[in-house]
Specification:
The protein has helices at residues 11-29, 49-58, 75-81, 131-141, 160-170, 216-225; strands at 2-6, 33-37, 62-64, 85-86, 102-106, 112-119, 150-156, 176-180, 190-191, 197-199, 241-248, 255-263. By secondary structure, it is of the alpha/beta class. It has a single domain, classed as Purple Acid Phosphatase, chain A, domain 2 (4-Layer Sandwich). The chain has a six-stranded mixed beta sheet. Helix 1 (11-29) runs parallel beside helix 2 (49-58). The longest helix has 19 residues, at 11-29. It is globular, with a radius of gyration of 17 Å.
């Protein structure tokens, strides 16, 4: 199976990168399933139903969120009627968070793809329940090679160590563990010892002439003066579509190939060879 995951979409340039490039890329790479993290798609803060529908029409099969899940209040109700939209799985049960954090998608040919999103706690503004405990329960509910033919884990958090720990924790139980939230693509794509593809952060879909997708002048002013400044807003240059491609073994669901995807904008382009 051929899978792709695209990192946090930031503002209008990120949305344009997805809508402009994903349809052709899906055909070129013969992708069976696509996940897009859309938590910063609406002006850098949250996701709206209209934007989500644009991503679905462009070829996304599943959208994930993160710590900005509820920045657009309509997401609180939209997520209840849209099973293709996932928020972090490890919200406290008592919080009554709408929607869900894991889902099994059935493709037209009958193959099944599991997707789950987790949110870490180190250096994060929200403190959710233990992501590793929730990962166990979800992985047990959709075992790779039995209940699902492929399984993707989006680990949304700040700390590199927490993402890496989750990758090794899920090794042998997932097709791909990929990090989101920090908006910078890491150069550590690998297949772990027990067959799970891993990347610490897929990077963002957005304008890289920026500070993690936001106008660089605002960030520089805040760091240099230590004073509050203008509200952060997305940089508006050409966006880069940034993500990861994984090809799995049909019999096991484990990864046999993993490569970066970078199209457009300021990063050096990298597109996996078809076939």
């Amino acid at each position: 199976m051929k899978l792709a995951y695209f990192g946090d979409v930031v503002g209008k340039p990120g949305r344009a990168a997805v809508v402009d490039h994903l349809p052709g890329l899906r055909r070129q790479l013969e992708l069976d399933f696509v996940v897009v993290n859309g938590e910063n798609a609406a002006g850098g803060f949250g996701l709206t139903e209209a934007i989500a529908n644009d991503f679905f029409q462009a070829g996304a099969d599943c959208l994930t969120l993160g710590d900005h899940a509820w920045d657009q209040r309509e997401a609180l109700t939209f997520i209840e009627r849209e099973p293709r939209l996932l928020r972090p799985l490890n919200y406290p049960e008592a919080a009554g968070a709408p929607g869900k954090g894991a889902h099994v998608f059935v493709l037209q040919d009958g193959r099944r793809v599991g997707v789950m999103q987790l949110q870490g706690n180190v250096f994060m503004r929200q403190q959710l329940e233990n992501a590793f405990n929730h990962a166990d329960a979800a992985l047990d509910s959709m075992p790779l090679g039995l209940a699902v033919d492929a399984l993707i884990v989006d680990m949304h958090c700040e700390a590199t160590s927490e993402k890496m720990a989750m990758g090794h924790y899920c090794d042998g139980r997932a097709s791909l563990v990929v990090g989101s939230h920090t908006h910078v693509p890491t150069a550590d794509l690998m297949i772990l010892e027990n067959g799970t593809a891993y990347q610490t952060d897929a990077g963002m879909c957005g304008d890289y002439d920026s500070v993690i997708g936001m106008k660089k002048e605002n960030s520089i002013a805040r760091f240099s003066t230590q004073l509050p400044g203008e509200r952060y807003s997305p940089a508006l240059g050409e966006g880069t579509l940034c993500g990861v491609f994984v090809e799995t073994d049909d019999s096991t669901g484990f990864a046999k190939r993993v490569e970066p995807i970078r199209i457009g904008g300021r990063l050096a382009e990298s597109v996996p060879a078809a076939g």
